[in-house]
UniProtKB/TrEMBL annotation:
Name the UniProt record assigns to this protein: Regulatory helix-turn-helix LysR family protein
Domain HTH lysR-type: 1-58
GO molecular function: DNA binding; DNA-binding transcription factor activity
Record-linked InterPro entries: LysR_HTH_N (IPR000847), WH-like_DNA-bd_sf (IPR036388), WH_DNA-bd_sf (IPR036390)
Key words, A-Z: DNA-binding, Transcription, Transcription regulation
Assigned protein family: Belongs to the LysR transcriptional regulatory family.
Entry GO CC: protein-DNA complex
Amino acid sequence: MELRHLRYFVTVVREGGFTRAAEKLHMAQPPLSRQIQQLEEQLGVVLLDRQSRPLQPTEAGRFFYEQALNVLERVAAVVAMTKRFGHVERRRFGIGFVGSTLYGALPNLFRRFRVAFPELMVELLELSSIE
C-alpha cells in the first residue's frame, strides 16, 4: 500500500463517487476504480458501497477513511517539519531594543515570537535610544 492509495480513497469518499474523484485527481475513472478495488483486495474488506448514490463507505470504509486522514495529515506535518531543517540557519530575524524594555513586554513578546516562528534564528540587539 502506498500513500497515493490513501489519497485516492479519501478523495473518492469526499467526492462521493469515482467520476468526480477522478476529475479532482486529474486521472481517468477506470484506473482510479481499479486502484480502489486492489486496495480492497489487499485489505480483504469492502470499503465502499457501490450501490448507493452518492457512494458511501462501509463500516470498514469509514474506519479506514478516518485512519487514512490521520496518516496523510501526519505525513504532511512530518514533511513540513523536515523541510524546516534546511531553512533554520538561513533565516535570521534581528530585533533592536533599548535596555529598559527587558523589564517590560519584550520577554513575553520574544517567547510568543519563538513559538509562532520556531524556524527563525532571532537575534536581539541592545541599542541606545539614539540608535
